[in-house]
Prior knowledge:
Layout: H1 9-67, E1 69-74, E2 80-84, H2 88-98, E3 103-106, H3 108-112
Antiparallel strand pairs: 1-2, 1-3
Amino acid sequence: MANSLRIDQQVVAQNCQKVIDKQNQWFNNFEAVQKQKSEAFDSFMKTTQDEQLERERSNTNFDEVLRGYRDVEDTTTGERTSVDLGNVDGVVNSLNETDPGRYKEIPLRDEVYPLPGNN
């Protein structure tokens, strides 16, 4: 009787394939969920970093007001000079009358916390 027992290899192979398919489906679902979580976290971190940069730049604007001056740069020579914040627009406009675009204001926030891509 024991010798007459035979295992149907085709049935075993089909059952094994069903188990493997089920495990693969579970793994693919798991990977998809992990990808969604990772993308959500990356989005959260980007938003947090953007908000932090915005706060730092805003605080630096306030610091510049307290200091009372802003740098003006000669774009030809790269030389910088500090100018009274209340008069900086007039100074830059006056200097640029003879050579348009040569002089520019450099807000403190742009020096300390430049925007990405504007380095």
